[in-house]
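Predict structure. Chain length: 129.
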Amino acid sequence: MKRRDWLIDFVSGRGFRTGWTVFIIAFFLFFVILPTVYVISYVFTDWDSITVVIGQPETLDIILDAVMASFAIAGIVTVIDFLAGLPIAWMMVRKEFRGKRFLDTMIDMPLAVPTAALGFSAALGFSAA
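Prediction complete.
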């Protein structure tokens, strides 16, 4: 039996699939569910410290300005994505042209690079200047 066949048999086996499923569930619980439960429990158990922050008019104005800026940016980006994305999607499906694979790669890139990692990298890059 070749080495490659052994590896395929191992990865295709029931034990590996069960272990992988357990790993994915544990990862999801540890990195998604647990922090969310912690934040929600902190809000309900230590509400006084949160009301101190929200109760200050200056802080509340900063928070509301940030939220409104986020919604404004999201709205602008949605319009730009719609206006640029619809023609590009039509062109990608209907036409054959040079550079189509490159354009497809550029379109798919945000799916491969997590948004949080890109934002963190950009924040580090802009703060170093």
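Summary: Helices lie at 3-12, 14-45, 47-55, 57-94, 100-112, 115-128.
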